[in-house]
Write a structure and sequence with these properties.
alpha+beta, 314 residues, 2 domains, Alpha-Beta Plaits, elongated, five-stranded mixed β-sheet, 52% helix, 15 helices, Chromosomal Replication Initiator Protein Dnaa, Chain: A
């Protein structure tokens, strides 16, 4: 498996998930789950990690975690490595417990932390193992809605504060906020992550891209790195196209084609921007590309837009 792109800096938030090797269970007993939570606690004590949400399923887990010290790799080596050692020693086994490397998506907290917490806490309901999220004993949801005996290492205050400055009101509001999606077709907010690596608004993604994407040759060869470095926002692309094409119908088709190719937006997110279905975006983009191949004039105009956007050498 290719090494994933890791963007690390002080104060970064991440949605993290890690799955059992061959999708096998990583917890076989209550003690296993308790031990895993112990490692979450020690990660906060030793490495300064801030755990905002967690949900332990049978063969994977979800975390919403902040790293004030910018040390994601160190924190995750502690959590996954320590738990694997415990699990292997207990069961007299050796080898990998987790399937490849953990998956971490950098998150713009002010925009997505609240939504991601709901997504994490609804995992047991989506999986059909609980009717209500509070019925699942191995997630942080119950601590959010009642606050009783909340572990010192679990930080609920930041997310609850998005709903109200008063604790009792924020807990009631949070319960309603989560229940609002019960029984709904609720797509993962992670689908909107640019290049599967950064979840946030355009300004946040561009700031991270400019400030934190390394030029290390190992990173430059990663698909996510290539996608992010060539990424341009939907607004940047449409503005560039509109400045060069007077025909609005053609400008729209070209914008769709270039956004599909270079924006890094998922189809669902791109469709929300443009007002077109996912299949409509792919079909329009494909047809425009095919037309440009046989039309030297259009091909030249496309090249002009691409050059203006600074995409010609990536």
């Amino acid at each position: 498996m290719a090494r994933p792109l890791r963007i690390q800096y002080p104060g970064a938030y991440y949605h993290i998930t890690s799955r059992g090797n061959e999708r096998k269970d990583i917890y076989k007993s209550q003690r296993d789950r308790e031990k895993f939570l112990d490692y979450l606690q020690s990660a906060t004590q030793r490495y300064g990690a801030v755990i905002h949400c967690y949900c332990l399923m049978s063969n994977h887990y979800h975390l919403l975690m902040e790293t004030p010290e910018g040390n994601l790799s160190q924190v995750m080596q502690h959590i996954n490595g320590s738990y694997t050692t415990y699990y292997n020693v207990k069961r007299k086994r050796s080898g990998h417990l987790f399937q490849g490397r953990y998956h971490a998506v950098l998150v713009e907290a002010n925009t997505y932390a609240l939504e991601l917490s709901r997504y994490i806490h609804l995992n047991p309901v989506r999986a059909g193992i609980a009717k209500l999220p509070e019925e699942h004993p191995w997630s942080s949801h119950s601590y959010y809605i009642n606050g009783q005996a909340t572990p010192e290492w679990l930080h609920t205050e930041t997310i609850l504060a998005y709903l109200s400055s008063k604790e009792s009101q924020s807990r009631r509001s949070y319960q309603s906020f989560v229940q609002d999606k019960l029984g709904c077709d609720y797509p993962s907010p992670l689908r909107a992550a640019a290049a599967g690596a950064i979840l946030g608004l355009d300004a946040f993604i561009d700031r991270v891209r400019r400030k934190y994407l390394t030029n290390d040759h190992r990173d430059r060869n990663l698909p996510a790195h290539r996608a992010l470095t060539r990424r341009r926002t939907v607004r940047q692309i449409t503005d560039a196209v509109d400045s060069l094409f007077e025909d609005q119908n053609m400008a729209r088709k070209i914008s769709i084609h270039l956004c599909h190719r270079y924006s890094g937006e998922g189809l669902r997110s791109l469709g929300d921007h443009i007002g077109l279905s996912e299949s409509g975006i792919t079909q329009t983009s494909r047809r425009l590309g095919e037309k440009a191949t046989g039309d030297e004039g259009l091909e030249g105009r496309l090249a002009e837009v691409i050059k203006k956007l600074g995409l010609c050498n990536v």
